[in-house]
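ESCALATION

Customer reports they have been waiting on this structure for their group meeting. Please prioritize. Original submission:
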Amino acid sequence: MDLFFGASTNASREQQSAKVRVEERPAKTPNASVNAPTDTSPTRRARPQQGDQTHKEDRRRSQQKDQSHSEERRRPQHDDRKRRRRLDEHRDERHTLKKLPTSESSRLSPRNSDLVNANRERVGSLPPSPRPRKSPVRAERKKPASSVAVSSLGQEIERCASVPVQASNVRRQKALVSAMPSPVDDREADSDEPVAVVSSVDAVRQSESQYEDYFRWQDGEDRLQTIELHLPASGATESYSLLMPKSFDRESESRDEYLPVNDLISTVRAIALYLVDSSDFRHKVCGDKENGILRQLERARNRLNGRDFVGAVHEFNRLLDLERVSSNIGPVFDKSHIPSDLAIHIVEQTYNRVVAPTVNMLRQYKAFSNNVYGEILPTLVSEFIERAGISHDTTFIDLGCGIGNVVLQVAAQTGCFSCGIEIMKVPARFARRQAQEFEQRMRLYKLNHGAVQVWQGDFCESTDVQRMLPRADVVLVNNYAFDSALNQTLLQMFLDLKEGTKIISLKPFVTPDHKISARNIYSPESILTVRRYQYWSQCVSWTDSGGEYFVQTVDRSRLNEFLAQRGML
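Update from on-call: job pushed to the front of the queue and completed.
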């Protein structure tokens, strides 16, 4: 009873205090006086509500304090990132505005043009951005006045020669490869100005410190190191070096070592046999086995007699100039099919000037992979041409063309359209540079050749290869080092080949005893027939011993006959 009475008493007190507070609140009337007396007695508030509010405010203040501390800790790094981002934006904006031509800014709307002008003023007030470091070797393509002058690559070779001696040979070779100009693009192809060839002197200059005099000069004689050789094209000459590699072995010549004297003699022989339609000239150069010019050159080379060698070269130049006046310069063979000796000579010249000086770059590949590098030598390529029956109306494609020697030889020897693709960057760059050098060198000899095209990329994914395969008549695949997975991928690609297309490979894509059955009628092997051939020593670069190669032919007649017998057609 007491508890109930106390509770009711407290409730009545609270009601009265609330009533008093309401009555003490002044009425808001327009006539109320500002100085009206008010009751200033303190009001009673609920203490629990006041405690909860204070606790929430304290907790909110501590959270704000912790957040401010964390922001202070993060602010330096955030400011640095923000400042770097702002500088990058300014530099990009400066680069864009400086490159904006006047015609572009004049086409802008008034609002945008005002914005561009304001940005120009703001960007101009910024400190200049640091210039990028320039490479010590930069490819500069200079157009010479004559068709046979020192090439741009020769000028870059001189730049490479200025690299400090402390630099390794690999570094100098990489600089030289990067300096090589890329193939002629559309803009250069439209130009009538010829691109000069790489002369023999340019090829030797790339590593001139490793060369020495070939001939022994007598006292009082001029120690000549170069000599000019006239070529069939009008006014065309090439500078040949009279030096030899210090490591040159007369007993066993290495293909990677370039000997200019032998190159000059081979050029004189090729011109006399194939490029001048005059029996008298041919007899004076190579017909007379005792006193002919070719015999004089060989005798002077063997005796190391520089004076006699130079005299024989001058006599050859005089005779060739006389034949040019008589209009006897021209091939003595069918223009649609160049003799293999002449085609190989021109391809070898291209190789010795473009690839041989930096051949070590080709050895940078992963061992036991699909990218292992190897070359098919010209003798075996000529046999491929004969076996596959390649002619001027053939379309030839080399899957994995390396430096492009096979592509060039096929184009020169048959006059057909020849193309190739290489996945590795360095060999592909050599292939494109060789294609350019080959084209200019064929002009010097006044010879026609088939169109040449080289791509860099993966032949399994290249759109160019997918476009060319249905048109191809002969496909070459040096799959000697390919794994089974890549060979299977190639087999699937061969389904796009037309009837009668020949596939030349160093490993078979189908076994000679393959038989069509109901289980393999949908396999690519069922549309191929294969024949095995042997090649002898010194036909490939990776071994001196012989081996075998295979010629597969797309023949769907056997498969159609099998399906017709079982009523599946």
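Sent to customer with the following note: The first strand starts at residue 211 and ends at 213.
Escalation resolved.
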